[in-house]
Design goal:
It is a single chain. The chain is α/β, with parallel strands linked by helices. It folds into two domains: 1-178, DNAb Helicase, Chain A (Orthogonal Bundle); 186-390, P-loop containing nucleotide triphosphate hydrolases (Rossmann fold). It has helices spanning 7-22, 26-35, 44-58, 65-71, 81-91, 98-126, 131-143, 158-173, 186-192, 211-225, 239-251, 255-259, 266-278, 294-308, 330-348, 379-384, 398-401, 441-446, 451-454; strands at residues 200-205, 230-234, 284-287, 312-316, 352-357, 387-392, 404-412, 418-425, 430-433. Strands 3-2-4-5-1-6-7-8-9 form a nine-stranded mixed beta sheet, sandwiched between helices. α1 (7-22) packs antiparallel against α2 (26-35), α1 (7-22) crosses α5 and α6 packs across α14 (294-308). It is globular. The model is unreliable at 146-152 and 444-460 (pLDDT under 50).
């Protein structure tokens, strides 16, 4: 079977950038870089080197084997960035044919994209999706293909954008668009109105609040229930622990029993088997490599997309991601990482859910409810996010001790901010729809009608 890429063309583009920079021709460098994106490259090393070149340009640095290595010493394969760049410069004699190289690279990228669309459409049909949804998804994917005439067209008249927006509204009315990924929790879905593609959703909370549980549950819902491929970067938690949590969540087997199987009864063993069967072949992929940078995340996501398709990404959690090129402060590094994940969401046209820690300021506040300004390390996280969800569980109250959790949506670009109540079932590693009633102000004041008596939810 013929390979769906050209190493020679990819090398030709990258080598041409180096030669144009060495010739002190910034206009030509900009022309070449402006024609491509890292998504056009098949090889992870080539995509990573292209991203490094973009960073050099953004920082006003020349692009040569020394400067690219200064920003990132090694490529995803482990090869020295300096050695790779020197080899490219040596093997590409000039910039004369860069347009032909770029066109060839983009053509192979389009072919891979078309093949991927066909595969995704077949998967949707096999999963029993409505035919209208399959067609709409394929049409949208085809519409995302860029022109191949070698000319960048980064702007349109406003009336063209308005026409496209009107078509989206009409498609929604007639059921010709795919639904956005959901959370699986009724009140939260009403609040958020869909996890939007091409955008970043931040789930934040204090340690132990349940933000990881919520993010994993969203990915699990879309992969297991809706058979949409999702990829989780679990930087802090090993994959085996995620597997145990999935068994507990899907099967309703208490985590403490899974930790001590001698306490499991026959029903627990049956539930565990049912959970494994339920998730069999579900396209939920986990990368638990503890060392991640924006470049490695992009390369892994691209590989997953090529091999399985990709409908969403979870990064757990943001401040554990290492910077590709460092910064003057940790806050600046986190800001660059946040920007890189937003760019990835746009490039791949999928939602990215990133988890973030909160500082302790909220615990000193009356009511203890967190705000967007409580995000730790960088205000860029707040700026880049399309939607921010704060997981708030006050363990100083009886309700909090019994699992009552408030999800505060403190920022949203497509819906009104607000909050909803969910029930945290800690022993099963999941959230559930809240089915109880909250105490009135009078009851709280009088200390009567305890929450635990009215609603026996699953606590920790």
């Amino acid at each position: 079977m013929r390979e769906l890429f050209s190493d020679e063309a990819e090398h030709g583009v990258l080598g041409a950038v180096i030669h144009a920079s060495l010739q002190s021709d910034p206009g030509l460098v900009e022309d070449i870089l402006g024609q491509m994106t890292s998504a056009d490259f098949y090889r992870a090393d080539n995509a990573a080197l292209f991203e490094i070149m973009l960073s050099c340009r953004d920082q006003g640095m020349p692009i040569d084997p020394v400067t690219v290595s200064a920003l990132q010493r090694f490529l995803p394969s482990g090869e020295s960035t300096t050695a790779y760049a020197i080899e490219l410069a040596k093997n590409v004699p000039s910039v004369a044919n860069w347009k032909a190289y770029a066109k060839h690279v983009k053509e192979w990228g389009v072919i891979r994209h078309i093949i991927g669309i066909a595969g995704q459409a077949e998967d949707m049909v096999q999963a029993g999706e409505p035919t209208a949804g399959v067609i709409a998804a394929a049409q949208q994917a085809m519409a995302d293909l860029r022109d191949l005439d070698g000319e960048t067209k980064g702007f349109k008249r406003l009336d063209e954008w308005m026409g496209a927006a009107a078509q989206v509204v009409d498609d929604k009315l007639n059921g010709n668009t795919q639904a956005w990924p959901a959370t699986g929790l009724d009140k939260l879905d009403e609040l958020v109105q869909g996890i939007r593609p091409k955008k970043v959703t931040v789930i934040a909370g204090l340690p132990g609040s349940g933000k990881t549980t919520l993010a994993l549950q969203i990915a699990q819902h879309n992969a297991v229930k809706n058979h949409k491929p999702w990829l989780v970067f679990s930087i802090e938690m090993p994959g085996e622990e995620l597997g145990l949590r999935a068994i507990a969540s899907l099967g309703g087997v208490a985590l403490h029993k899974l930790d001590n199987p001698t306490r499991m009864g026959d029903d627990d063993w049956m539930r565990m088997g049912a959970a494994v069967a339920q998730a069999l072949d579900a396209p939920l992929f986990v990368c638990d490599d503890p060392v991640q940078t924006p470049t490695t995340i992009r390369a892994t996501a691209r590989q997953c997309q090529r091999e399985h398709g990709l409908a969403g990404i979870v990064v757990d959690y943001l401040t554990l991601v290492r910077s590709d090129h460092g910064g003057r402060s940790r806050s600046e590094e986190v800001g660059k990482i946040s920007k890189a994940l937003l760019q990835l969401a746009k490039e791949m046209a999928i939602p990215v859910i990133e988890l973030a820690q909160l500082n302790r300021e909220s615990t000193k506040r009356v009511g203890k409810k967190p705000q967007s300004s409580d995000l730790r390390d960088s205000g860029e996280i707040e700026a880049d996010a399309s939607c921010i969800l704060m997981v708030h569980r006050d363990m100083d109250t009886e309700e909090g001790q019994n699992g009552l959790t408030e999800i505060l949506m403190t920022k949203c670009r497509h819906a009104r901010v607000g909050s909803c109540i969910v029930q945290q079932e800690g022993q099963y590693g999941r959230f559930a729809n809240f089915a109880g009633s909250l105490p009135s102000d009078d009851e709280v004041e009088a200390g009567r009608g305890s929450y635990a008596q009215r609603y026996k939810g699953g606590g920790q």
